[in-house]
Design a protein that fits this description.
- The chain is 53% helix and 13% strand.
- The chain starts with a strand and ends in an 11-residue tail after the last helix.
- It has 224 residues and is an alpha/beta fold.
- The chain is globular and about 50 Å long.
- It contains 11 helices and 6 strands.
- The protein has helices at 12-23, 37-47, 63-73, 88-97, 109-120, 131-139, 144-153, 159-169, 174-181, 185-199, 204-213, and strands at residues 3-8, 28-34, 51-55, 78-83, 101-104, 125-126.
- A 6-stranded parallel sheet has the order 2-1-3-4-5-6, with helices on both faces.
């Protein structure tokens, strides 16, 4: 099965670099490019890619607004936001919008390829270099009303599901969660699927956001 990818960045050289990395992979095909968010909407509507790699800062329509519309109008096209270390506020908003993940622009080529495959397969992409810092940034000033509502929703989870959600939000992988809880990876995936279903979420990224907004995990907290 070939994974179709759309590239969205206002810098032509960035798009060239992304295309070069992805085009050598036998299971990935770049089906189009756009230089701003408005163009991206038309591109995705025409090509229906499996994955959209999109920059944040672009003219006419930025990547944040484009991501919101893509997630809403084209849920089958999974969005990965390309970011730099100085764009925490943008990424936090993109997480809330429901993107499937984000990746640093300076990430090694192999990470880019892995990210595309992971998201195309239905997974979420949490770059450990920035994820916890970004989420902590907007969870540090929570909306009390929202936190109360989120905390009440936690009651829908079993104690094991709550443990899995907590560890996910603390940055652990499925393999690490399985080892900590003495479970098989398949069981961890089953718990995650049930968590998403019960909370009305669609991605692991949204689950992490939920964990912080509900107070289940506090900024700076780590699993020990």
């Amino acid at each position: 099965m070939t994974i179709s990818v759309a590239l969205v960045d206002d810098e032509a050289m960035v798009r060239v670099g992304l295309r070069m990395v992805l085009s050598v992979e036998p299971d990935i095909e770049v089906v189009g490019e756009a230089s701003d968010g408005a163009e991206a909407l038309g591109l995705v509507a025409r090509t229906r890619p499996d994955v959209v790699l999109i920059d944040v800062r672009m003219p006419h329509m930025d990547g944040l607004e484009a991501s919101r519309r893509l997630v809403r109008d084209h849920p089958d096209s999974k969005v990965i936001v390309l970011t730099t270390f100085d764009e925490d506020a943008y990424v936090a908003a993109a997480l809330r919008a429901g993107v499937s993940g984000f990746l640093l622009k300076v990430a090694p080529p192999e990470h880019l390829v892995e990210a595309v495959r992971t998201v195309a397969a239905g997974g979420g992409l949490l770059d450990p270099a920035v994820t916890l810092r970004v989420i902590a940034a907007f969870a540090g000033q929570p909306d009390p009303a929202q936190a109360t509502g989120r905390a009440a929703e936690l009651d829908m989870l079993t104690s094991r599901e709550t443990d899995v959600l907590r560890m996910l939000a603390q940055g652990l992988t499925n393999t690490q969660i399985a080892a900590r809880l003495y479970l098989g990876e398949a069981t961890v995936k089953t718990h995650l699927s049930r968590i998403l279903l019960k909370l009305g979420l669609t991605t692991r990224v949204q689950a992490v956001v939920f964990a912080y907004e509900s107070g289940l995990v506090r900024p700076g907290e780590r699993e020990v």
